[in-house]
Specification:
Blueprint lengths: L1 H4 L49 H5 L13 H13 L5 H19 L4 E4 L4 H7 L3 H13 L9 E2 L11 H8 L3 E2 L10 E4 L7 H11 L1
Helix pairs in contact: 4-6
Length: 212
């Protein structure tokens, strides 16, 4: 009955879909997976098999150990924008399903103690009503049985939107943005979950805070 009142929508075209499908047949090939070869650090596509790291990862040390990404941003940017800003929290099921389908074995190999979603500042959370990264983490957790801990990391500074800044300002914008409300959290290995990776400034600052 609930599907008749609130039918499922395709995360790409926003058309109505029926049954168990999470994406319509017309859109299934639109999201483009990040192609091999990939940067061994951040997972961005590389132009040659003869190099291991992208220019950014060669130039700037990252605090996180390794990243894996699913789709090229340009192929899903409208969908991600709707997911975040057009009250489409249900799209989390599609993204988590595809993450687990294509990257599940790699995620399992990390032997993570927990999934930690990148937190929103309280003001943005109140405006949006949900944290899209936590929704994805929750759906991954259901499928891979890795616990989600969303109280380990908090966002204490309301930063400017990263997409409006250049690479240098993005890094400065995130300095000190996160904190841990409690010390002595006994976790050896965690996976940070975010919806978009551009320069990696957000993930890197979150990783630095956890490591500190």
């Amino acid at each position: 009955m609930i599907n008749l009142i609130f039918p499922k929508r395709c995360p790409i075209c926003d058309g109505i879909i029926t049954g168990e499908k999470l994406i319509c047949d017309e859109c299934i090939n639109i999201p483009r997976r990040v192609r091999e070869p990939r940067c061994m650090k951040c997972s961005k596509h590389l132009d040659s098999n003869e190099i291991m790291y992208c220019r950014d990862c060669e130039k700037h040390k990252k605090h996180y150990a390794r990243g894996i990404a699913l789709y090229e941003y340009d192929s899903v940017k409208d969908s991600i924008n709707n997911f975040k800003n057009a009250s489409k929290p249900e799209f989390a099921s599609f993204y988590a399903d595809r993450i687990v389908h294509f990257l599940g074995s790699e995620i399992k190999d990390f032997n993570a103690d927990a999934l930690i979603p990148i937190p929103l500042h309280i003001s943005k959370f109140k405006k949006r009503g949900y944290n899209q990264s936590k929704l994805i983490a929750d759906e991954i957790s259901k499928r891979l049985e890795i616990p989600v801990l969303d109280n380990v990391l908090q966002r204490k500074i309301k930063t400017k939107e990263q997409k409006k800044l250049d690479d240098s300002d993005r890094q400065k914008n995130l300095v000190g943005a996160f904190h841990m409300p409690q010390n002595g959290v006994k976790l050896y290995n965690v996976i940070l979950v975010d919806d978009v990776y551009t320069t990696g400034s957000t993930i890197d600052e979150a990783a630095r805070t956890l490591l500190d």
